[in-house]
């Protein structure tokens, strides 16, 4: 067996070497290069689908000197991108090189006059179809996959393009992509509508930053002044303009914050707990795929600082009961940050954390308690302890769980009181939860067994990925919001088959709409009502229920239960 130096031995050996550390071992230098496989990757794997190729062609049109408009036509057969810029002299060596050499051209990362960076997008374009690039009196044709045997593409294949003379002079540039069938959806696919929608979003604020309009299938994609993006929002909102960006923010955290680099859509960020748009004034430093911001981007760091301050100001206008779990998580992270003393003082009195009864409590109130308990939202007796004045925090709530994580972490500034065991405290207080799951299902009567088995079939048909049990409580049912649902006798209002099956259908969807525990005092706010209504009105759910009822009518319960392998 070969002995290897340990890391410490290796470091010692290096340090005691007689040769100076900075002295090269030879006179040879090594230059990193790329082989043929890199060019193949840039062409075949750089972009995910046709929209990425069209995006690159549109960006080239926007960046063309003198361009004021880019027209885009998309159909299942072909895509055409036409700009009115200066075009390219394909009869010159430089012009041909700019369109045939990956990375060639005048684009620079630090150049805010163009929205492109690398000059490699042309590779993605020729991978999606037979391509004709026409400017002035000449066209450059590629058939990368050698799929065309007639017309301008008859004699070209691979990366070898051919220059051809054209009958008409074109001042700008036209890019025609004659789609390869395996690179695009079927002609009647819904994905064509998605392509157009995605491209409209991609260039929504380009005109506001570059002055170049983009028109797709006859309709302008311009969303206007980004400062007006939240002008008509029904939610709390604000706008800010800095030297680096325009911020138009609204309190719609589930939608996320759309980030635009110099007007070009990059990504949607959800970690701020906000909705709206951010449009940078100049280019952000993006990753290779242009769908993320690189960590070393100075401009984004300044925008990020402005975003955090604007977020704090917007949160001040949102009532505690409207704050979502995502927003509350953002706020607790800020409170725990060493650099957020102001946020700590500002938000300590806000009710950001959830008790076992699903009511809210502030950090100040938590810290004022002699001791606190942690529960998962379904722990026996936790809710009753809260009613008796104890502080029992519900860790099934994301923000509350984050508080617990931070409280355990000794490196944060968040401090909480000592803890007690919830189960032991409940037992010593003699509290009863009022919720009892029946463990031995053989003790259920015939009707209860039928209700339970039918509810389990329903869960499977409706895509509710939670276990279903039977229990005793004053409520129709309850759930922990994640793993199980318990139904009770009061879930059904009649022994008539048609009625109780529909009762269970509504009860199962009701509990599925709960994302946290529904015991005792469940939250039935706007988000819950919206979720429940969408589940009830979903055509797929209605159809699944109707088909299941018909199957029961045709075959009987036992046959259905056997088919679904649903037992006790």
TrEMBL record:
It comes from the Archaea. Keywords: ATP-binding, Nucleotide-binding. Residues 9-29 have a biased composition (Polar residues). SUPFAM superfamilies: ATPase domain of HSP90 chaperone/DNA topoisomerase II/histidine kinase. Residues 1-29 are annotated as: Disordered. The lineage of its organism: Archaea, Methanobacteriati, Methanobacteriota, Stenosarchaea group, Halobacteria. This is ATP-binding protein. It comes from Natribaculum luteum. One of its GO terms (molecular function) is ATP binding.
């Amino acid at each position: 067996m070969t002995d290897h130096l340990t890391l410490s031995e290796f470091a010692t050996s290096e340090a005691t070497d007689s040769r100076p550390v900075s002295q090269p071992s030879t006179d040879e230098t090594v230059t990193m290069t790329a082989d043929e496989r890199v060019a193949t990757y840039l062409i075949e794997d750089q972009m995910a689908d046709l929209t990425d190729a069209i995006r690159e062609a549109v960006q080239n049109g926007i960046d063309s000197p003198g361009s004021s408009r880019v027209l885009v036509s998309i159909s299942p057969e072909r895509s055409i991108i036409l700009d009115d810029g200066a075009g390219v002299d394909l009869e010159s060596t430089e012009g041909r090189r700019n369109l045939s050499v990956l990375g060639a051209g005048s684009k620079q990362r630090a150049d805010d006059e163009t929205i492109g960076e690398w000059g490699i997008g042309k590779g993605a374009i020729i991978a999606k179809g037979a391509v004709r690039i026409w400017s002035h009196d000449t066209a450059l044709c590629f058939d990368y996959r050698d799929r065309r045997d007639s017309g301008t593409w008859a004699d070209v294949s691979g990366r070898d393009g051919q220059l051809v003379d054209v009958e008409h002079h074109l001042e700008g540039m036209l890019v025609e992509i004659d789609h390869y069938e395996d690179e695009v959806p079927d002609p009647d696919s819904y994905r064509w509508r998605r392509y157009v929608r995605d491209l409209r979003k991609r260039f929504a604020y380009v005109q506001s930053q570059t002055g170049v309009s983009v028109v797709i299938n006859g309709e302008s994609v311009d969303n206007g002044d980004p400062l007006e993006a939240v002008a008509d929002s029904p939610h709390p909102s604000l706008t800010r303009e800095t030297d680096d960006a325009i911020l138009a923010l609204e309190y719609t955290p589930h939608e996320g914050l759309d980030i635009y680099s110099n007007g070009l859509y990059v990504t949607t960020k959800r970690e701020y707990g906000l909705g709206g748009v951010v449009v940078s004034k100049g280019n952000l430093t993006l990753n290779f795929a242009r769908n993320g911001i690189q960590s070393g981007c100075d401009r984004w760091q300044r925008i990020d600082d402005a975003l955090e301050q604007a977020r704090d100001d917007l949160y001040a206008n949102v009532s505690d009961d409207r704050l979502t779990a995502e927003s509350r998580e953002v706020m607790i992270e800020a409170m725990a940050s060493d650099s957020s003393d102001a946020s700590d003082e500002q938000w300590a009195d806000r009710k950001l954390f959830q008790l076992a009864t699903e009511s809210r409590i502030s950090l100040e109130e938590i810290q004022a308690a002699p001791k606190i308990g942690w529960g998962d939202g379904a722990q026996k007796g936790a809710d009753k302890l809260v009613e008796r004045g104890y502080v029992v925090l519900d860790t099934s709530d994301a923000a509350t769980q984050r508080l617990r994580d931070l409280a355990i972490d000794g490196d944060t500034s968040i401090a909480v009181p000592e803890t007690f065991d919830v189960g032991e405290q409940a037992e010593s207080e003699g509290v009863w939860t009022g919720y009892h799951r029946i463990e031995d299902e053989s003790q259920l009567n015939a009707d209860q067994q039928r209700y339970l088995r039918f509810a389990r079939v329903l869960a499977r048909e409706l895509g509710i990925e939670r276990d279903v049990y039977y229990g005793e409580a004053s409520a129709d049912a309850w759930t922990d919001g994640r793993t199980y649902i318990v139904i009770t006798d009061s879930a059904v209002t009649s022994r008539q088959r048609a009625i109780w099956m529909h009762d269970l259908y509504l009860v199962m969807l009701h509990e599925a709409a709960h994302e946290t525990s529904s015991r005792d005092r469940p939250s039935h706010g706007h988000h819950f009502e919206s979720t429940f209504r969408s589940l009830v009105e979903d055509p797929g759910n209605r159809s699944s229920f109707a088909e299941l009822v018909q199957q029961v009518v045709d075959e009987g319960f036992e046959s259905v239960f056997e088919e679904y392998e649903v037992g006790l």
